Amino acid sequence: MNHVAPGFWLAMDYICDIIYLMDMIVHAHEGYLEQGMMVYDATQRRGHYMSSGDWWYDLFSMLPTDIAYFWWDRTTCQVVMPCPVIVRLNRLLRIPRMIEWFDRTETVSGYPNVIRIFKVVMSLSVLIHWNACMYFAISYALGFGSDNWVYNLNGPRNSTLAHQYIYSFYWSTLTLTTIGETPQPENDAEYLFVVADFLAGVLIFATIVGNIGSMISNMNVARVDFQTRMDGVKQYMAFRKVSAELEDRVIRWFDYIWTECGALDEEQVLSILPDKLKAEIAISVHLETLQKVRIFQDCEPGLLEALVLKLRLKVFSPGDYICRKGDVGKEMYIVKRGKLSVVADDGIMIFATLGAGSVFGEVSVLDIAGNRTGNRRTANVRSVGFSDLFCLAKNDLWEALSDYPEARATLTERGCQLLRKDGLLDEDMFKSAQRKKQSPEEMIAHMMNALEQLRERVTLHHAEQASEHDDIIRRVNAMERR
Predict the structure, then answer these.
(1) Is the pTM of this model over 0.85?
(2) Residue 103, number of CB atoms within 10 A of its CB
(3) Phi-psi region of 34 (alpha: psi -120 to 50; beta: other; left: phi over 0)
(4) Distance between CA atoms of 394 and 365, rounded to whole angstroms?
(5) For residue 6, what pLDDT is reported?
(6) pLDDT higher for 6 or 214?
(7) What would the mean pLDDT of 84-108 be, rounded to a whole number?
């Protein structure tokens, strides 16, 4: 047999050993959870590593068994195995560490199914590789070329290391996958090995291939579910004889939803999380969008967090009217994606175009008394293409404001400023409504405040009168002395 220079294999072995050693150091300093809290102290981490027992596996896997290379050829062990690499079997103790790495990568990855498939494919390759090594070792023990089943070294091509490995790997693949078409065994040892391979193929590979099928099915389950719902809608439209134009609009809406959102139901996905984490995710996703609204700028953080949880995403198709002139305003809108046109009543003339980040309808949700429009829409807003809009309902806004009376007054004042700017606020009606809205407690507090102010004025006036009286007396006394 032609062999690659031993120096090459020694270099590869020790490169791997350096990686193992670095991993051992990292393993000894990995963080761990204690009562749900991450431990950052290096001393405690090392103590935890030593007490866990993992260091035994790492230590035994790093034992320098490679020194056996230097006396291997002088022993009779070569009769059993054609390669001294068997002395590095203790490196297989690193397998649990590799499995742990895969599990952690799968947890943090955004594509867990891809990691799982790669893990299974790698496991298949390793099993085939080990079985190929066993086939070559048995061929060595029985004698190369002794029969048609074992590997035959005759010929310049068969003696190369590359062809030896490729043929053994090919034989192992055919046998473990139970495809067959391999040379017929000719003695008991060969029969036993092939039977063991077939059993391993039936038990192990059937399980692994089944897992791969399950993972591939799970990757497409969202698409299949979405397609099923779309087919149901299409069947309903066909049964009810919906017009072809409307049917085409519905199908294009489904295509847009799948392309942009992947049929992702946010409510269903986040329902498993506790309210605190759900709120933090909503804040991370929507808070910046909400802060673009003028009336909400500089509001209390608690109010903004409460409002963020009430934002709802709506998708409008091309040509859909978000609101029409004269409609009662019950929602405000924030454009996330797409373009909207502010059009005339005839639907032809375009007054303005709204893009991502634009806000409209914010004054109507405040329900300000004295609004000359009566909280009705003052324009027609139409979607140019597909548009994604965040909407905030009036009821949700006032429910959140019930716990923030100061913020309610501030928002009302900002809404009044916007109405005054456009000349749409009746000041007398607004002030009258504000007085009517006062509760008995507020009225009593207002009266007490007025009485306090009156008392302060009377006291000040009395002090001024006493000062003037004293000044007059001093002047009279001065005149009498003259």
Answers:
(1) no
(2) 11
(3) beta
(4) 5
(5) 63
(6) 214
(7) 81
Q: What is the CA radius of gyration of the chain?
A: 41
Cα–Cα distance between 62 and 94 in angstroms, integer?
Answer: 9
* Average pLDDT value for the chain: 79
Amino acid (one-letter) located at 270: L
pLDDT digits (tens, 9 = 90+) for 34-50: 766 778 888 888 888 88
Q: Is 43 helix (H, G, I), strand (E, B) or coil?
A: helix
CA 252 to centroid of chain Cα atoms: 27
CA–CA separation, 465 and 430 (whole Å)? 41
In sequence order, the 6+-apart residues with CB closer than 8 A to the CB of 1 are 82, 153, 159, 161, 164
In sequence order, the 6+-apart residues with CB closer than 8 A to the CB of 148 are: 183, 184, 186
393 — phi, psi (to 5°)? -75, 150
pLDDT (tens digit per residue) in 339-363: 999 999 888 899 899 888 788 887 7
At 76 the pLDDT is 45
pLDDT for position 2: 44
Contacts of 176 (CB under 8 A, 6+ apart): 127, 128, 131, 197, 200, 201, 204, 205
352: CB partners within 8 A, 6+ apart: 341, 342
Nearest alpha-carbon partner for 364 in 355, 356, 352, 372: 372
Amino acid letter at 328?
V
Q: Within 271-337, where are the H helices?
A: 275-290, 301-308
Token pair recorded at residue 56? 């035994």
* d(C-alpha 198, C-alpha 177), whole Å: 8
Q: CA-to-CA distance for 455 and 457, rounded, in angstroms?
A: 5
DSSP state for residue 352 in the 8-state scheme = E
Confidence of residue 403 (pLDDT cuts 50, 70, 90): confident
| Both tokens assigned to 274 | 């506790």
The set of residues, in sequence order, having a beta carbon less than 8 Å from that of 139 and lying 6+ positions away, is 150, 151
Instruction: Write the CA distances from 231 to 218, 225, 235, 246, integer angstroms.
Output: 20, 10, 6, 15
According to DSSP H, which parts of 94-111 are helical? 95-108
